[in-house]
Amino acid sequence: MAITGAELRRLEAATISSWPSITSALDGAWLARLARGFTKRANSVQCLDPADDGEAGARLGRMVDLFLLNDREPLFRVTPLAGPGVLAALDADGWESFEESRVLVMPLDADFEELAPARLSDATDRNWLEAVAALAGLDRRSQELLGLIVGLIAHRQAGIVIRDAAGDPAAAALAVDAAGVGVYHNVVVRPDLRGQGLGRAVMQAALAWTRSVGASEGAIQVVSTNAPAVNLYTSLGFKEAYRYHYRRPR
After folding, report:
1. Whether the Cβ atoms of residue 47 and residue 82 lie closer than 8 Å to each other
2. In this predicted structure, what is the pLDDT of residue 1?
3. How far is CA 8 from the centre of its chain?
4. 8 and 241 in contact (C-beta within 8 Å)?
5. Distance CA 172, CA 235 (A)
6. Model confidence pLDDT, tens digit, residues 38-54
7. pLDDT > 80? residue 85
8. What's the CATH class of domain 110-215?
9. Three-state DSSP class for 199?
10. Residue 234 has what DSSP assignment?
11. Residue 13: pLDDT over 90
12. Contact 232, 195 (CB under 8 A)
């Protein structure tokens, strides 16, 4: 699908604010985000304006120093908003590309059927955090960082859990209404229950909730090589808007 520059910036703003960093720094339209290493999206630099690519080599060097000062591996999240000067500076310094992801979008203009009973709560609720930690295999530190990050979300949000007959968590997701864009994170299904429609069920619940609170569009980011997830989201009606990837010093 074709996407305008204004829509791209709107989606980037929504995905950034729906998954906040703990600290951040700006150099013009270059945004450095730091979250103690929890997820690459919240621990990377990105450019928010393709026209702001002057003196890119020097600015890239300052960003490297900033990440090292904060004991983090320097990462650059390269979206279509990275101008040619940014790309040239990354190439000149030998930053290697890895992990391409797709940003998928869909209109929230239809009702979404409830496929399984889902419990919705504030994502800072201990029960949701513990369910996600169990499903994703998070250690205690990662669970604490997850709780810290979701506690920093300024927008309306909901933690969603589907449980099995024994009451144990079977699937979970985080839904955020970021200024009219429903953004979805932490979509996870218990390994022994995959392929049974629980991913679709938890996403249906997430889509229904964001539509109910006023979002008109949904967006999700997914690693391009994660074929089951890509297939699930496209079957729900998501279409690719753009791609991004990461780069790191060799």
Report:
1. yes
2. 74
3. 15
4. yes
5. 19
6. 999 999 999 999 999 99
7. yes
8. alpha beta
9. helix
10. H
11. yes
12. no
Sign of CA dihedral 54, 58, 63, 66: negative
**pLDDT band at 182; cut points 50, 70, 90:** very high
Residue located via tokens 């500076």:
89
Instruction: Report the distance separating Cα 155 and Cα 235, nearest Å.
Output: 27
How much is the pLDDT for 196? 96
SS3 call for 221: strand
* Cβ(92)–Cβ(244) below 8 Å: no
- Would you state the structure tokens that stand for residue 149, as one six-digit string? 């990050």
- Spatial strand order of the sheet with 45-47 comes to 23-27, 30-34, 45-47, 76-78, 239-249, 95-107, 217-223, 181-189, 169-178, 156-163, 119-121
- Torsion angles phi and psi, residue 109, rounded to 5: -115, 15
Kindly list the domain boundaries of the chain, sorted by start residue. Answer: 5-101, 110-215
Instruction: Tell me the C-alpha distance between 108 and 185, whole Å.
Output: 17
What integer is the mean pLDDT of 188-204? 97
Whether the pTM exceeds 0.85: the reply is yes
